[in-house]
Amino acid sequence: MYGYSLEAIRFKEDCSGSLFWMYNDTWGEVGWTIIDYYLNREPSYYFVKRAFAPVKFIMRESSGIVKLPAILRSNVFKELSITDVVLKVHDFAIEGGNARFAVTSDGFAHAVHFNLGDGIRLSDEYFDLLPGESRYIAIYDVQKGYLFSQIKAECVHC
Question: Number of structural domains, the chain?
Fold first, then answer.
């Protein structure tokens, strides 16, 4: 919800910016923040991160004309007819103290994530993949001896 709201504000030609409210929790609770009390990133963190990217392509329809080509979901996700997909994690590499890997899908995959635990910091998580698309993910500050076999990609409908 945050990501879509921020994109809508950013798309307006007469908007000079927006104020992002409720960044983190000050005590343990269930709320609207993107960083919880223990400094763990909530799924919405990654949508907000992409919405605030320096270069962001946003598509909107107006009077039957689509502005800027991109992925358009014409309906809410739960009403879409989406088949099961297979996610493949591959191309593992260690570069300095960081590691990277790629994830690929054989179909449209919504909200791809990895559930690696709170101590693992990733460059991106909870994103959509198109069929055949690969996304490279960095793992920051990898401990020596990290087992790449622990990385399993999941999505909302996998």
Answer: 2
